[in-house]
Amino acid sequence: MFKKLKPGESEEDVLRMAAEFNAERQKNPGFQPAATVVRVEKPIGKSLFAQKRELSKLNNNKNTENATLELPATKDSNDNGKGITNKKVLLDEIHENMLGDVRGTKVNQNLMENMLGEIVERREALLRPAIEHQPVDQTNSNKPKSIFAQKCNAKQQASNAVCSAHESQNNAKDEMNSGHSAIVQDPKLTKEIHDENLSLLNQMREEDILAEREKLLSSLDPALIKLLSRKRETQKEQQKSIQKPQCSESKELPADANIALASDNPALELLQQSDEGNWLNFNLIEEHKLAWMRDIPAKVAQLKPGQQFNARFDWKGVLLPHTVEDLPQSVDERELYLHGEEPDRPGYTLQELFRLARSTVLQQRISAFGSIAGIFSIYNQGFYDQVLTLPVSKIFFLLRFGLDDNTPAQLEVVSRALARLFYNETDEVLLDHICENAYCHWQPTLQVLVDNEESGDPTSFAFLQRYMNLLRANSNAINADVDEDRTEQDSRLSMDDFQLAETDLMSCLLRTNILQRICFIVHSVRPDNSTVESCLKLLIRIARTNVATARQLVQESQLLKVILTNFMPKISQAAAMSSAQSSFYGHPQYLCLKLIRVLICQHLDIAKELANETLIESLKGFLFYRDDIKGKLIRVQIESLRIVRCLLIHGILDRELFK
After folding, report:
1. 557, 434 contact by CB (below 8 A)
2. What angle do CA 124, 132, 160 make, to 5 degrees?
3. In sequence order, what are the residues at sequence separation of 6 or more whose Cβ sits closer than 8 angstroms to the Cβ of residue 420?
4. pLDDT digits (tens, 9 = 90+) for 183-192
5. Which of 137, 275, 429, 574 has its CA 20 to 30 Å from the CA of residue 584?
């Protein structure tokens, strides 16, 4: 009786119990384990159509049995019964011609006995005798058969002929492979005959042998000659297969086999640990399974001066050098080799980052978008000028598609990447720094400029082409003055998204309903502080585009209401004293005030629309608060002073109120 494994026992106990079990098994050949595994095959499942068909067959059989048990009462009933049975017979024949004998009413009993007989294991490898097919009795054989039945009978006769041919060939093969002569049964006699034949052949010349061979071949049956040649070929193939050595399996090495391994072999350390820990089956070394653990050979070709190569970036968006030798020693680049193409170079190309950004694994998407955000951060600072060419429009669509996901972690990294693409930190710092200078309260616009010098010249080809288009559209229009803004707007409407992204990326961003998306993110998703900061930076950049875009932003009343409610609340002592703000929501944010200032500086009408009593009261609360002006609140008061200055210059506020 063997003991069971208890908690706390080690591998040594498992090995000891395994040795005891093997020793007992060698002593007692009839030893059987306590349990054996038996594989039970599952029954073949049937479809619903097959199940319904079987149920309908059973119901039809029951109905026929009930009909045969009933006795006829009158002559009229006999006539009706004969008509029903005749009709039933006709239906059965039609059914049989279409689907065959499904009910099994015409099955030969002898055939069933041969098929369902006892299965006996045969000692000799002889073929089972073929079952004699007897003709099935068919009623109403004089009736003409359908085309389908005639084709089925023709196929059956052809299959029977093929089966008989195969049987004859198999019988001939059995006689050939039996290893005994069909004429002489005594092995001694066959040897004597063989020796006599050899002695006769040795006495004959080669010309006589060839002549007798040709004479014998001409007198024999060609089928017999083919049969003998096939037998000779099969015997040669069997001899070759026997002489071929079997595939050598992995050799079992002694315990000290790891000494013969090279020092750079990755299995050396594992084998040394296996000797100390008595690991099972670690005395086998399989080189083909250890190939993936080897170091990748460095086969990087040396570049010529001016030659281009695929740019590869790390997870922070830093452009990596072409060769590994150029990397600093402190850089740990092990995680940068997990790619298929150019495995000897670290980093990831833009195509590989695009593939990771569309992954179903969230961590892979976040890593890819984070790398793209780092690329744009360095790209906007000018470090990649005249060094790297980025497909900005393609990356923009990838980021815009990623912003449609409501996962907070992905929203954070994608919004940061979009903010670094559109919002230039250096430009914004310079504009804020000179805002207090004279006449610097007017903010510049960052719209796409179109060179209209050539198109404004009446003698230019572009001006004539636009004028001809105007005449085709309206034959009564003779005025040569063309509305440039309207024609430019029409041309942008006729462009698709990819063409518009190549010419004006900000207009393409507005076409993707970015304002409504930011409103939903801020109001419904309520993400982390970094996501809110990136969204506010995007809105500031949109407001700096031009006056028309600023008016479009102001018309989004729901967006402005959400922003002013959450990030410009009435300041209170509790809100001001909270030094560690856990969330942007419910606290005044200087980026929100900066957005209002940029919108006010665009046009007087926008300033009048935004300067309502709610905004003025909020500005008063920020400016008149003196309890604590440390940290972020000081930046809020600075932006409030800038907004008040712009409103005073516009003449919207009363100067006596802020003296």
Report:
1. no
2. 100
3. 373, 376, 377, 380
4. 556 777 778 8
5. 429
